[in-house]
């Protein structure tokens, strides 16, 4: 049977990237998506904004919602300091299988915990499963109508502390209107919009960075 796009993306990584070199993995995926087949990775333009937010935050504990093929997982983990951890949640086993191999090719499996399951089920278990108290940075890139419920769930579970950063992809395209409305009007968050473009296109999109004020 015909291969899937994530399988072809993985093949491009294994063909064009150097094992153990995260930046070459990121570059190989961007090349594949720009010149061969579009895929919903955060991409190189928004990726630079992601890099600057991660570097500035220098987080110890990072949560990513929606691993997909592991592009942003590798991008974030490559910037983390030695004792920090990235937990990434993915509920599609096929995507998780591809992402594990992309993460392994980058040599970042020691910094990354890929957990298979739905965010709504896993968020309440983060403390017991991983001994995490709070997350310093959360990257939201899963189903757009789940950003708001999962943010409220993280608040309820006490996973955010004063200064925790939420970074949300696609707040314009495909768009996350209910999340934006909530986060921009809540006194508990200080938000900032980083205008950019939908990955590998000229369509407007952007990232919303929100600091939890406690
Ligand atoms: C129970 C569902 C909610 N909980 C969840 N828990 C764990 N993983 C979840 C997840 N939801 C979705 N996922 C996973 O995240 C990923 C989903 C991401 C959804 N992203 C998008 O739809 C998206 C879509 C676009 C897009 C933009 C324009 C366009 F024309 C077509 C697509 C661009 C993006 O950057 C996107 O992120 C998948 O791997 C999916 O299996
Ligand atoms: Mg996205």
Overall description:
There is one protein chain. By secondary structure, the chain is α/β, with parallel strands linked by helices. Helices cover about 45% and strands about 25% of the residues. It has a 7-stranded mixed beta sheet, with helices on both faces. Helix 2 (about 20-35) runs antiparallel to helix 4. The radius of gyration is 16 Å and the shape is globular. The structure holds ligand 705 and magnesium ion.
Features:
214 residues, alpha/beta, 7-stranded mixed sheet, 10 helices, 7 strands, 23% strand, binds ligand 705, binds magnesium ion
Q: Portion of residues in helices?
A: 40-55%
Tell me the quaternary state: single chain
Total strands: the figure is 7
**Count of helices?**
10
The N- to C-terminal Cα distance equals 51 Å
SSE-based structural type: alpha/beta
SSE order: HHHEHEHEHHEHEHHEE
3D shape: globular
Average pLDDT figure: 98
Task: Report the sheet-strand fraction.
Answer: 15-25%
């Amino acid at each position: 049977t015909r291969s899937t796009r994530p399988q072809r993306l993985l093949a491009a990584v294994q063909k064009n990237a150097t094992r153990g070199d995260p930046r070459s993995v990121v570059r190989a995926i961007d090349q594949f998506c720009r010149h061969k087949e579009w895929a919903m990775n955060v991409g190189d333009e928004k990726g630079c904004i992601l890099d600057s937010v991660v570097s500035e935050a220098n987080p110890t504990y990072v949560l990513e919602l929606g691993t997909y093929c592991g592009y942003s997982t590798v991008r974030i983990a490559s910037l983390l300091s030695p004792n920090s951890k990235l937990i990434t949640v993915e509920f599609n086993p096929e995507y998780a299988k591809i992402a594990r191999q992309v993460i392994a090719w980058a040599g970042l499996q020691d910094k990354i915990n890929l957990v298979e399951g739905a965010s709504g089920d896993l968020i309440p278990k983060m403390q017991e499963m991983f001994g995490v108290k709070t997350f310093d940075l959360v990257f939201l890139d899963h189903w757009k109508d789940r950003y708001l419920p999962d943010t409220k769930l993280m608040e309820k579970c006490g996973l955010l502390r004063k200064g925790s950063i939420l970074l949300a992809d696609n707040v314009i395209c495909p768009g996350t209107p209910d999340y934006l409305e909530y986060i921009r009007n809540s006194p508990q968050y200080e938000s900032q919009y980083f205008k950019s473009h939908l990955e590998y296109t000229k369509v407007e999109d952007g990232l919303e960075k929100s600091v939890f004020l406690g």
